[in-house]
Amino acid sequence: MSLIRANNRTSLYIGLNVAFALLLGVAYVIGGFPNPRLVYLILLFALCSTIALDIDSLNGRYALLGLFMLVYFVSYGIGDIGSLFQGSSLPASSQRTGDLLSKTEVIVLLGGIMLALGYRLAVFAVGARRPNRSPRDWPQHTIVMVGLVLWAIGTYATYRWFVYIVPDTTTDVVRKGLASVGTFTATAYIIGQMMQPIGILLLAYALRSFGNPLILAILIGIVILQVLLGFVIDIKGTAMLGGILVILTSVLVDGRFPKAWLAAGALFVVLVFPIFQAYRTAIHGDRGLARTAVLENFSKVLQLTLAAKDKVNSGRDHAMTFFERSSLKGVTEIIVEKTGNGVEFERGHTLTPILAAFVPKIVWPGKPDVQTGQLVNKSFHMTDSDDIFISPSNLGELYWNFGWSGVAFGMGLIGFICGWVGARFNLAEYRTVTRLLIIVVTMKQLIVGFEGAVGPGYVVWLRSLLGIGVLHLIFARVPVVSRFFVPTKAEHEPVPADRPGSARLFPNLLT
Predict the structure, then answer these.
(1) Burial group, residue 178, by CB count within 10 angstroms (0-12, 13-18, 19+)
(2) Cα-Cα-Cα-Cα dihedral sign, residues 166, 148, 295, 247
(3) FRET pair for 186, CA 20 to 30 Å: which of 308, 360, 444, 477?
């Protein structure tokens, strides 16, 4: 069963693109923008919406491509759409060109085409091949206990790291913090922080698989604690981590959206997100208040933050919105314009950390440690501060290294990697802890992390896959039955109704 019947997908695709073109027309009339990028936006949407022709379920083979196309469109199209509605100015490069498409826009379209082609090639390569025996999942009590332990360790490591060891992102503070604990301790803290999201995922998986009310209560408490921790350490991602992972797990396990959790997430964005913006600007930024002081005077800090909320989030100098922060086109334009024209091609230099992903520094003291974000800032003279890190996006970094060939081959390879993971580990076929962890870490590091540098994202992804493999070898015991697998007599074991493999696949989209 699929979300949309195959014979209706072409009609859906055409309908979406006609509606988008009409929307752009309305925006042009309202905004009166003198230099609309209409052709570019229409082509970008036509490319990204091709997922409507393929996707068959929210947790199937093309689920990762669907998310990637959404991220890609937001990253390279949402800024121009906002300018079109508001009638505001675009970057200088877009204003100067009289062509229908600027060089950067052609590169964005080429990158998206190669991404989609690489993904579909990987799905074709995996094909309909099925394993000769059913995979194995973790026992229920193991999922819950390991989830609680990993979350507790990860939360403690995150709290200690960002409050006492590295309480700021400046180079001097980071250097002093690392020197104060030593290489081994710092590595332990970093690994510990990686355990936090895995713990939340395990508990969310247990909730969706077994429906235990006690697990629900525990998860609600964890989500609230994540918000408080994220506020103290001034990291919105930490604050939203719990809710996002619960929603994501529900979509991947059940193939449908959880209405209650989505409503709670919407309330967070509307009511709580502006408070975090005010805290960062008015308290943590202007006052320079240490995080230990925030803990000691939490109620007073909260009052000051609430008082500053309206000022920070409104007016001409308001804090950047989510969509403004998500737009990558401006940075990519700078990289494309200046690379080869005053700035040298990197020729793979910023990608070298991937080669040493599994080599510890104690074995290779001189292993590459390229601070790509800082290097982007210095090379392209974006700010005067050496402590500012500018995200180049995977697309921008590929062009900075190898130009057009880097975009074509690199984006195709990224698409192929994501397509192989999406087809090989899709949860519509089998639902297991291991598959969930692999899919989610790929979403986080390779797709959502597409805005950042290539090296750090892929290093963390590779190391995470190794850790997930070790956990699978230790804990996976319970056989799982799939609709695609006919077990032999020796393997045929009854699966309880609350096991992941026995649920109906896609009864509806909302629950």
Answers:
(1) middle
(2) positive
(3) 444
Cβ atoms of 234 and 185 closer than 8 Å: no
Contacts of 241 by beta carbon, 8 Å cutoff, 6+ apart: 196, 197, 200, 226, 230
Looking at the chain, the whole-number percentage of residues with pLDDT higher than 90 is 45
- Bridge partner residues of 339 (DSSP): 343
Q: Residue 206 and residue 120: Cα distance in Å, rounded?
A: 32
Q: What pLDDT score was predicted for residue 497?
A: 41
pLDDT above 50 for 509: no
Report the DSSP beta bridge partners of residue 297. Answer: none
Residue carrying structure tokens 């056989």: 479
- How confident is the model at residue 304, as a pLDDT? 64
Asked whether residue 31 carries a pLDDT value surpassing 70, the answer given is: no
Is residue 435 scored above 80 in pLDDT? Answer: yes
Quote the CA–CA distance of 298 and 315 in Å, as a whole number: 27
What are the distances in angstroms from CA 293 to CA 8, 230, 284, 442?
58, 15, 11, 37
Distance between CA atoms of residues 452 and 400, nearest Å: 14
| β partners of residue 510 | 257
- Based on DSSP, count helices (H) and strands (E) in the chain, helices before strands: 19, 2
How far apart are the C-alpha atoms of 154 and 421, rounded to whole Å? 26
pLDDT at 173: 75
- Please name the residues in contact with 357: beta carbons below 8 A apart, sequence gap of 6 or more: 458, 459, 462, 463
Distance CA 374, CA 170 (A): 11
Cα-atom radius of gyration of the chain, to the nearest Å?
Answer: 24
Residue 167 has pLDDT above 90, yes or no: no
As a whole number of angstroms, the distance between CA 483 and CA 1 comes to 11
Rounded mean pLDDT, 76-96: 67
Each residue's pLDDT tens digit, 205-244: 999 988 889 999 999 999 999 998 988 887 878 888 899 9
Residues 6+ apart with CB under 8 A from 58: 3, 251, 252, 255, 256, 257, 506, 509
Nearest in space to 308 (alpha carbons), one of 266, 346, 339, 274: 274
Q: What is the pTM of this model?
A: 0.83
Within 10 angstroms of residue 370's Cβ, the number of other Cβ atoms is 16
